[in-house]
Specification:
Distance between the termini: 27 Å
Radius of gyration: 15 Å
Strand content: 5-15%
Helix content: 40-55%
Structural class: alpha+beta
Largest sheet: 3 strands, antiparallel
Shape: globular
Length: 112
Amino acid sequence: MTSLEKADLLQGTLDLLILKVVALGPVHGYGISQRIRQISQDVLQVQQGSLYPALHRLEKRGWLLADWGESDSGREAKFYCLSARGRKQLAAEEQTWARLSNAVALILQTAE
C-alpha cells in the first residue's frame, strides 16, 4: 500500500495524530514519525517538512512541552510531551474525529 500524500489527510488530522502519539510518552520528532508509520502499518508516513512545522505550532499553542535530551543513538534531540492543555485538546480532537468518521461511515453505508 502506498503512503498517503499530505493533501490526502483531512485538515487537522496531523495534529491529532501527533497529540495521540505524544500521549504515549515523551518522544522526539523522528520517533513521532516512526510511531505513526509503525502503528498505521506503513499507511501513514509523515515527512519532516510537515512534521516539524506542526510540532512547532503545537508547542506554540501550549499543547506540547519540549525539552532537550539524548536520543537512543546518543544524539541531542528535542523530546515532546503533552501539557495539561494538550491532554484537553487531544480529548476534544478525538471526539471531533469520532463524530466525523461516524458521519462518513453512515454515508458510505447507504445503499446505492
